[in-house]
Design goal:
- The structure is a single chain.
- With about 150 residues, the protein is α/β, with parallel strands linked by helices.
- The chain has one domain (about 10-150): Alpha-Beta Barrel (TIM Barrel).
- Helices cover about 15% and strands about 25% of the residues.
- Strands 1, 2, 3, 4, 5, 6, 7, 8, 9 and 10 form a ten-stranded mixed β-sheet that branches.
- The longest helix has 10 residues, at about 85-90.
- The two termini are about 20 Å apart.
Length: about 150
């Protein structure tokens, strides 16, 4: 997969953000596509309500289709926001998805270590929002951030 990097870390835009959080745009399909078009991978929040898929952090907002997801599957890190969503992804396979709350780490479906902010250094992990705690990034293999452009060094 093509990465917008000069370093060797996986760079993941948090909900489509590149240079800071913009809550009204986060998880919007066009916002996600913009980050993808620049070569970043993107962490998205997905809900499944009665078999219908939605993007949104605190609640389901933007309806999407499986076709939309399939076209982007290799570049998405899917944070399942409800049990129905994780059951849906588990039944179809092919996606990198996970569930977490405030766990120190969780494993994604592709066996990546997804580390809660402030828990670094963890060897081989994805550091989530490392700017919040000035995390030590020496051991991680990737970064998920609202400020992902800052890590493109």
């Amino acid at each position: 997969m093509e990465q917008p990097k000069k370093n060797s870390k996986i760079l993941i835009s948090h909900r489509g953000n590149l240079e800071g959080p913009i809550s009204k745009l986060e998880n919007a399909p066009e916002y996600i596509d913009n980050a993808l078009s620049l070569g970043y991978q993107v962490e998205i929040d997905i809900w499944s309500i009665d078999g219908v898929l939605f993007l949104g952090h605190d609640k389901p907002i933007h309806g999407i289709t499986q076709h939309w997801l399939n076209k982007r599957a290799h570049k998405l890190w899917v944070h399942c926001k409800n049990v129905e969503a994780i059951e849906w992804f588990n039944s179809i396979g092919g996606f990198n998805y996970f569930w977490h709350q405030e766990d120190t780490v969780t494993l994604t479906s592709r066996n990546y270590i997804w580390a809660y902010p402030g828990k670094q250094p963890i060897k081989g992990s994805i550091a989530v929002m490392p700017e919040l705690y000035k995390d030590n990034l020496t051991e991680c293999i990737g970064i998920c951030s609202d400020y992902i452009k800052e890590y493109n060094f």
